[in-house]
Amino acid sequence: MMNIEGNLLKMRVELADPVQYFLRLGQEEIYMNDLINRHIELNYHKKIHCIKCGRITSKSFAQGYCYPCFRSAPETEECVLHPELCLAHEGIARDIQYAKEHCLIDHYVYLSFTSGIKVGVTRYTQIPVRWIDQGAIAAIKLAQTPNRYTAGLIEVALKSHFSDKTNWQNMLRTNEMKADLLQEKKKALSNIPENFKSLIADDDWITTIIYPHRNVTGKISSINLDKNNYYSGNLIGIKGQYLIFHDGNVINIRKYGGYLINLKY
Fold first, then answer.
1. Structure confidence by residue, pLDDT tens digits, 56-65
2. Of 88, 133, 149, 260, which is most buried with the most CB atoms under 10 A?
3. pTM to 2 decimals?
4. Residue 82's domain spans which residues?
5. pLDDT for residue 1
6. How would you classify the pairing of strands 20-25 and 28-31?
């Protein structure tokens, strides 16, 4: 039995058929596709290290940060969740060099199908990783913008027509495409404000994503490491950043960034 210990980071992914998953524990990477249909054990040692500065923190903020880093790190700035609030184009940011590399570069507004049709924003460097992380089974580009702020404005304009949220339980139950993304794109483009029409993406390619995942039936329960530091079960699939087990339990790996974990398999 392998026994690996380290601080957890979100899984690294590679687009393939199916998606390839690599669990990062400290300096180790575990190829998770090989562990499907095998028994694994997760043991949380009740210690969290901030994924930014490494200090021990009693509570994790924004999926892995200590409170001081949560308040000061560019990775947790308000525009991460609300692109329309980005001020980097005005020269205002927690770290202007970080902003130049992450906010003042091309972004895409897109439609994806997760638990349903969803509108979103991502850096061009994060395609298709962003779509995989959210559990999308298909995605299409709507607009290409020169910065995060502009993409956020387009997204806000479309929120009255499309959701910007994913129901994670329905996402885990969904393996079938239940919408026509080309038709949905036409609908979206008709609702983009006139002053952004020049940014519409001509690319109508639909990226389809296949996961090492089977349909989840019955009740789905989320494993909470803060309440129960030990879990063991048979891994039956992976989707988004979720490990899915035979008994209906799932764990969102991204939620537990920085947690000191022992993995046995």
1. 999 999 999 9
2. 88
3. 0.96
4. 72-208
5. 85
6. antiparallel
Based on the domain organization, do 204 and 93 belong to the same domain?
yes
Tell me whether the omega of the peptide bond preceding residue 83 falls within 30 degrees of 0, making it cis.
no
59 with 92, same domain?
A: no
Same domain, 226 and 198: no
- Say if residue 218's pLDDT is above 90: no
Degrees, nearest 5: CA angle 209-212-213: 95
Are the C-beta atoms of 66 and 57 separated by less than 8 Å?
Answer: yes
Rounded distance, CA 114 to CA 173, Å? 10
Within its chain, how far is the Cα of 75 from the centroid?
A: 14
**Measured between alpha carbons, how far is 215 from 210 in angstroms, rounded to an integer?**
12
Task: Let me know whether 11 and 111 are in one domain.
Answer: no
Domain count, the chain: 2
| Percent of the chain with pLDDT strictly greater than 70 | 100
Q: So what's the pLDDT on residue 193?
A: 96
CB 232 within 8 A of CB 42: yes
Q: Residue 199: how many CA atoms within 13 Å on its side-chain side?
A: 22
**Residues 6 or more apart whose Cβ sits within 8 Å of residue 94:** 72, 73, 74, 77
Please report how many Cα atoms fall inside a 13 Å half-sphere around the Cα of residue 38, on the Cβ side: 13
Measuring CA to CA, which residue among 131, 124, 104 is closest to residue 19? Answer: 131
245 lies in the same domain as 194: no
Q: Are residues 81 and 103 in the same domain?
A: yes
Q: Which of 177, 208, 239 is the last residue of a domain?
A: 208
